[in-house]
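Objective 1b. Sequence-to-structure analysis of Chlorophyll a-b binding protein, chloroplastic.
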Amino acid sequence: MLRAVVLAASLASAAAFAPSSILPRSSSHAAKAVGPRMQASESVPFLSKPKRLDSSLPGYVGFDPLGLSDYVDVKWLQEGEIKNGRVAMLGVVGLIVPEVFTFPFFKKGVAVYDNFFQIPPESLGQIALAIGLIEVFSHKGKITPVDMFEDGRKPGEFGFDPLGFGKNPDAFKRYELAEIKNGRLAMIAIGGMTHHYFLTGKGPIEFLTQIPNFKSCTSAAIDTGLCV
C-alpha cells in the first residue's frame, strides 16, 4: 500500500514539471506573449529593417545602419547620393586622365593633387560660390528636405537627357540602377585613390605601371614598408 502511494506521488510530481504543463500548448499563445517579430535588414541581417526606407527606389538594398531615413526624407538622401556619385565619377576620370594628358597651362609631370594646391584660395572660393548658386537656382531656392520635392520631381532628375536614354522606360530603369551602382563604386574609388596618393605620392596609373607582379610588390612592402 505504501509503495502505491509513493508511486502515485512520484507520477504526480513528474506530470507537474513536464514541459507541456509549463510551456504554452499552442504557437498562438507564444506569439501573443512574445509579440510581432522584428523584420531584419536585407543587407545587415543583425539590424532591423529601416522603417521609412522605400524599396521602390533604384539601388535599394536595405542599407541604412545609422537610421538616417528615420529622421530625414529618403528622397532628399538619395538626391545627395546621386549627386555625390555623379561628382565622384567625374572625379575618378579627372584623377586618371591627367597622368596621360595635361593642358598646356599646367606643369607636366605634376600630380593632379599638386595642381589643386596651385589654385589661389580666392579662386577656390569663387568656384565654391558658383557651385552653391547653381545648386540654389536649379532647385528654385528649395534645398531643404521639407520643400525640395514639393513639385513631385524624382531624386536626381533635372530634365537633362541629350541622348534620349529615357525614351524607353525599361531601359531607363536599367540606366538608373547602373548610375547608382557606378556612383557608389566611384565614391569608394576616389577615396581610395586620394588616400593612396597621400601615402605613396603616386597616382593610380603611375603606381600600377611600376608593379611587375603582385609578388614583387609584396616583397618591397616587407623590405621598405611601402610598395614602390
